[in-house]
Amino acid sequence: MAWTREDMARRAAQELRNGYYVNLGIGIPTLVANFIPDGVDVTLQSENGMLGMGPFPYEGEADPDLINAGKQTITELNRTSYFSSADSFAMIRGGHIDLSILGAMQVSEKGDLANWMIPGKMVKGMGGAMDLVAGVKKVVVIMDHNARDGSAKFIKECTLPLTGVNVVDMIISDVGVFLITDDGATLIELAPNISISDVQERTEANFKIDKQLL
Question: Catalytic one among 47, 61, 201, 204?
Answer without folding.
Answer: 47
